Amino acid sequence: MKVRYQTPSAVFALMFSPDGTQILLQKRQNTGYQDGAYDLAATGHVEAGETLPQALCRELNEELGITVLPGQLEFATMIHKHDRDTDKVYFNGYFKVLSYDGIPQVMEPHKNAGLSWWPISQLPATLIGDRKLALEQYAKGIPYSELGW
Questions:
Q1: Cα dihedral sign for 14, 15, 19, 21?
Q2: Closest CA to 91 of 148, 15, 23, 139
Q3: For the chain, which residues score pLDDT lower than 50?
Q4: CATH code for the structural domain at 9-147
């Protein structure tokens, strides 16, 4: 049987303030990827048997201690990313969190140096590039983008 190419997938949470002017970000540490940079509030890989929304709900609970059901997510955008440095290819799914139960807090302090709200109009210079692109594409209503090809 022919072995098929398999592309990993990752999910990302867009958590906006009630008035939509701010977004919740985390500062990465000790992960081996973009440590010291700002990232979206919750991110992670899709595991076997999970849909993208299921994976993000799991990540939101693991990383922020909040409960989110798939129906509380709204698809925002997808980026098909090719990392030329590692030659890895990902399908990155971004979802807006419409509502949740609980209070977001750092549940993995060994990987997350802290959470903070940032004005959409003044994002930190160290926000990871494809996350910034996702926010820009979402704001423009563009559902799919390619990066690094």
A1: negative
A2: 148
A3: none
A4: 3.90.79.10
